[in-house]
């Protein structure tokens, strides 16, 4: 399939400002169809859901369309899509009903803290899966010893937000299920970088955030609605008892939900083709992934050639995400000097609290993160490499 990068980039107004946006791992830019969908929802008028008047019915339709779109993106069903402000908030909420004192929850040093700390506050005993600090891999074999009869949940990421590591989630979930445990998969970083099938992964709960894949700041957790029906979170007495609504606190940001649907439609149209939206998404995300990894091969090779750069992690399967330090400069200084050259990168721990500790980087300010998404081009990579190369003469 032909991937027209120029056409894709033209959909993103922010890319016209002259900056190389290599900060996508912290949140992508927003395409024009998403901006228009949010604006249109406000222009047409929206009310709260469940009312007898047209503006309320528009809100009902927006919510239903959003659930269907997220389900198509990851391979779930609309009735199992919980919507909320972000993955962290939803994970805190679900953790309280999935685990408690007397349970064990297996967490990993690879994960973003949003898939660690919510489990700690349940009172369950945490058991830790360790990361190989050299390769950045999360060995599957250790889970056979970590998962036992008291394991209630195995929480694991589908991709590291700083190293890009893609652990063998399906194998980990298989071990968890054999012991009767549930699996909670953080797909926030992974969803933007390739096709997702929650059933193939073995994820009982799959969390994602739309702002990582060209949408507004909305989070979602996708699960089997039958499993959700057995869970009863604290809620306001008059709030809906239906699934998935019983897990959603307060009024949704309806216009933003319209933007989520538009973002999924945008991703489904990255390459021309027919079929259902799910089929088009699988095709588009596969081609986008190939594009990212092709660019990333050049980015990695370029950084490896620079003697003043240290790269962290070399996993066999990864997203297009690099984490590195520059000799003589703090990560923040590197980010500031690249920003002066109109190259956007992040610095610090990026909430990978346990992982930066395992890498020995947390106390020294973490490292620099540069990540590619589907709208990045070769000039973005070249500008990053040129900027980092110049830092060898620019240390002071």
Description:
- The protein is 38% helix and 14% strand.
- It has 396 residues and is α/β, with parallel strands linked by helices.
- The chain folds into two domains: 5-31 and 277-390, Alpha-Beta Complex (Aspartate Aminotransferase, domain 1); 34-268, Type I PLP-dependent aspartate aminotransferase-like (Major domain) (Aspartate Aminotransferase, domain 2), CATH 3.40.640.10.
- The strands form three sheets. A seven-stranded mixed beta sheet has the order 2-8-7-6-5-3-4, sandwiched between helices. Strands 9-10-13-12 form a four-stranded antiparallel beta sheet, covered by helices on one side.
Name the features.
single chain, 396 residues, alpha/beta, Aspartate Aminotransferase, domain 1, Aspartate Aminotransferase, domain 2, 2 domains, 7-stranded mixed β-sheet, 4-stranded antiparallel β-sheet, 14 helices, PyrdxlP-dep_Trfase
Can you lay out the helices and strands and say which pair or pack?
Elements: H1 5-10, E1 20-21, H2 32-44, H3 54-74, E2 81-84, H4 87-98, E3 104-108, H5 117-120, E4 125-129, H6 143-146, E5 151-157, H7 169-178, E6 182-186, H8 198-201, E7 205-209, E8 219-223, H9 225-229, H10 254-268, H11 277-304, E9 309-311, E10 321-326, H12 331-340, E11 343-344, E12 346-348, H13 353-358, E13 367-371, H14 378-390
Parallel strand pairs: 1-11, 3-4, 3-5, 5-6, 6-7
Antiparallel strand pairs: 2-8, 7-8, 9-10, 10-13, 12-13
């Amino acid at each position: 399939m032909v991937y027209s990068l120029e056409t894709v980039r033209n959909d993103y107004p922010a890319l016209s400002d002259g900056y190389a946006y290599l900060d996508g791992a912290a949140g992508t830019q927003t395409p024009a169809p998403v901006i228009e969908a949010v604006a249109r929802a406000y222009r047409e008028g929206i009310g709260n859901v469940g009312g007898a008047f047209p503006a309320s019915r528009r809100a009902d339709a927006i919510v239903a369309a959003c659930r269907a779109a997220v389900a198509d993106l990851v391979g779930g069903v609309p009735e199992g899509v919980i919507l909320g402000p972000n993955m962290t908030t939803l994970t805190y909420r679900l953790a309280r009903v999935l685990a408690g004192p007397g349970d064990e929850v297996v967490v990993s040093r690879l994960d973003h803290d949003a898939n660690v700390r919510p489990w700690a506050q349940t009172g369950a005993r945490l058991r830790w899966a360790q990361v190989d600090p050299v390769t950045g891999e999360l060995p599957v074999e250790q889970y056979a010893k970590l998962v036992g009869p008291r394991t209630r949940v195995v929480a694991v990421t589908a991709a590291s937000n700083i190293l890009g590591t893609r652990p063998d989630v399906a194998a980990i979930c298989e071990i968890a299920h054999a012991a009767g445990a549930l699996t909670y998969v953080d797909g926030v970083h992974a969803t933007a970088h390739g096709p997702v099938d929650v059933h193939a992964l073995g994820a009982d709960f799959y969390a994602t955030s739309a702002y990582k894949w060209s949408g507004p700041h909305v989070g979602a957790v996708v699960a089997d609605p039958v499993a959700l029906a057995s869970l009863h979170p604290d809620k306001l007495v008059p709030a809906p008892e239906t699934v998935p609504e019983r897990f959603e606190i307060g009024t949704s940001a309806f216009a933003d939900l319209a933007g989520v649907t538009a973002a999924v439609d945008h991703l489904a149209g990255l390459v021309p083709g027919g079929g259902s939206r799910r089929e088009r998404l699988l095709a588009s995300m596969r081609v986008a992934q190939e594009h990212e990894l092709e660019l990333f091969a050049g980015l990695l090779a370029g950084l490896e050639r620079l003697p003043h750069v240290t790269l962290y992690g070399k996993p066999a399967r990864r997203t297009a995400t690099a984490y590195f330090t520059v000799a003589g400069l703090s990560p923040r200084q590197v980010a500031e000097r690249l920003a002066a050259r109109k190259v956007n990168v992040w610095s610090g721990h990026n909430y990978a609290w346990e992982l930066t500790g395992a890498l020995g980087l947390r106390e020294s300010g973490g490292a620099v993160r540069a990540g590619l998404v589907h709208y990045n081009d070769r000039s973005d990579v070249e500008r990053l490499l040129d900027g980092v190369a110049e830092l060898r003469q620019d240390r002071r």
